[in-house]
Amino acid sequence: MKCKICGEKAIIHLRQHNLALCRKHFIEWFEKHTEKTIKKFDMFRRGEPIAIGISGGKDSTAVALALKRLGYDVRGIFIDLGIPVYSEYSRNLVTNFSSKFGIPIEIYNLKEHYGESLPELAARRRDKICSMCGTIKRYILNKWALEIGAAALVTGHNLDDEAATLLSNTLRWDASYLAKQNPVLPPTHPKFVKKVKPFAFFTEREIAVYAIVMGIEFSKMSCPFSKGAKSLRYKHVLNELEVQSPGTKLRFYREFLKFQKDYLKVQIEEPKLRKCKICGMPTTLEVCSFCRIFGLDRKED
Amino acid sequence: MKCKICGEKAIIHLRQHNLALCRKHFIEWFEKHTEKTIKKFDMFRRGEPIAIGISGGKDSTAVALALKRLGYDVRGIFIDLGIPVYSEYSRNLVTNFSSKFGIPIEIYNLKEHYGESLPELAARRRDKICSMCGTIKRYILNKWALEIGAAALVTGHNLDDEAATLLSNTLRWDASYLAKQNPVLPPTHPKFVKKVKPFAFFTEREIAVYAIVMGIEFSKMSCPFSKGAKSLRYKHVLNELEVQSPGTKLRFYREFLKFQKDYLKVQIEEPKLRKCKICGMPTTLEVCSFCRIFGLDRKED
To answer: CA of A241: which chain B residue's CA is closest?
Structure first.
């Protein structure tokens, strides 16, 4: 197949766009569309610090690189959760990525800051490890983004993630979840940083190809604690439909965003937030779930 | 497995309801839920003539029998489209069904009434045969239901059909289709008969089991003209999700109906209808599509 723009050998065929592109023109296409999404959803502007949590996987590294190449002020953080083998392996990839592409990435060690690693917490507490991990990462990312004065906290969510979440919410017709799902999640409190997803319209495959052609060495290891998540089922069935009818995922998500605007302008009642009596961050409870995980309320007493 | 009600040997396990039932109690459960759906959606009442198009398949025969056993005044019609082998095979099953269960079924021969069978029309015209067949059946069923003064035209649509249609509409977020999909389709003109789907909450499997235990000999042949329809893909992926999480289809459809009530109370603009200048039935055009298929406008000139 030949590149539709220059006639050179194509490296990718984007079936849903009916577009074959060479390396150079794919990179151009990919970055142009990243910029388009940022502008369309008014995610952030040049000159503002942009926070990105970098796990070492293809999505977070690729989004950091694409934003840097587009001239944005990218600041990364890697949260070392202390998961044997996995965390060390990812951390090495991330530090290499940081120096190779000149992207500043802070290494944040959970145990150093809070005295316990994720597996240690999991051994001590009854909560599900994946839910604890989510709480911890959300908390640290937000707090750090706030500290560096970031205009937005970027996540690497891709079209496969968004479509799977959307399918899951749609199968239950959960109006409040449906009303919220968006490439931009505005903060509901001054101490929450706006979350944005510049890759929400790219498939996993497109991002993987971008990461590869840009020479990113990304992690292919999945977290040893993650089990066959339900979202994988939704990704699987959406991929089946995509193969039979290219463009299904993109249409599903794009048309949803229009539908949401027209029919789901519901005033969602946000839970009333107060100040965590330990850390001062916003929470619905007296002590926020992060402080509870680390038992900071009990240490206080 | 034992029947949850009487302890006898169960013949079916309804995973999504976590319910195993023997023959007797399954029939009871099935008919009770049919009645519940009829009442809940105010579909029709005892004493009113109820029209059903009977193809010979499991859904239409089963719904006719269930309604008769529930004491409704069921009137059937079989449309003989003149499809070689298939139409004859189906017609024989339908006449046997009619006499076995004492359900009056009119045999309506397309060629006798309009001079051409479906395959003859297909040979003469460029339209797609499945779309012509749909137009013809809708027209004849409605006209006949109107003539017999039916309170409703019953179709055998099941949960698999409804969920597949819903998934298809949802993947495109087609608000006007989503706003209309319902177990009851109210008539938009006095010459249109209300359409109702008393089996909308039963899976194909439940209906097949009912048909079998009731001794219905139904057609297992599919129309030789029907090709792998897109709806089969949707049924397939929904079945995959159902296996992994029983109740997915039922929840998807039920929760949708609630969502529709809350968020899709859109005033759909119905197309302006006028009188077909040939047959007098409502249509958006000068001559309705049924009359055009048979060239009745040209014969008139």
So the answer is: B233
